[in-house]
Q: What sequence folds into this?
């Protein structure tokens, strides 16, 4: 309980759908400084308290190009058969991505249900490439170029979208977008309860 209280004090509220910050493109980070280190710490603390598998800087009201991924959380929760299906011999990752750029997408795709901490109460099947090659800086500003697959690749793509001002609902068909319209309106109005701190845009 003490750990949860401590994390809550160090975490930030998730920015909810409707806030313009979620539709802005993130700015690249060129120097590692105390503000960047603080951003990374805030991302991890907020992700931990919210129970998510990934979180991007715009979701805590920052326009810097960074996100964190903790796909190990999903790996730990899945039964063996689903682990084999969604993870390619790995156990997920816990990684910081700064100035990430997806260089290649595989032709192979899969469809899986996605949600978003900024869009509570909505989950939809989204088709994404199975493999991706990503170039990024880690928390120590070391440059990497790696291939990621399966569920981990999906989480990276989801968070990468955030840095481009995109949301998972943008990948829905016109019909499904129409079906989510009412729920999105409720989110804007702050009518969807969450079990984690969230900051709704004041509805006018």
A:
């Amino acid at each position: 309980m003490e750990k949860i209280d401590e994390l809550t004090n160090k975490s930030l509220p998730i920015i909810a759908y409707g806030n313009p910050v979620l539709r802005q493109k993130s700015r690249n980070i060129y120097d590692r400084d105390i503000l960047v280190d603080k951003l990374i710490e805030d991302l991890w603390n907020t992700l931990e308290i919210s129970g998510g598998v990934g979180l991007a800087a715009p979701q805590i009201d920052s326009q810097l190009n960074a996100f964190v991924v903790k796909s190990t959380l999903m790996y730990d929760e899945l039964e063996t058969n689903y682990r084999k299906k969604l993870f390619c011999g790995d156990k997920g990752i816990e990684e910081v991505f700064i100035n990430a750029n997806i260089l290649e997408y595989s032709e192979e795709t899969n469809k899986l249900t996605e949600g978003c901490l900024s869009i509570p109460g909505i989950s939809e099947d989204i088709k994404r490439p199975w493999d991706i090659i990503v170039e990024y800086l880690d928390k120590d500003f070391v440059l990497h170029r790696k291939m990621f697959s399966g569920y981990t690749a999906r989480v990276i793509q989801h968070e990468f979208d955030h840095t481009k001002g995109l949301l998972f609902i943008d990948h829905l068909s016109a019909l499904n977008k129409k079906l989510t319209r009412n729920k999105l309106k409720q989110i804007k109005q702050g009518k969807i309860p969450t079990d984690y701190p969230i900051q709704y845009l004041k509805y006018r």
Notes: The helical segments are 2-10, 34-50, 72-77, 80-86, 150-163, 174-179, 181-188. The chain has one domain: 2-196. The two ends are 37 Å apart (CA to CA). The chain has a mean pLDDT of 93.
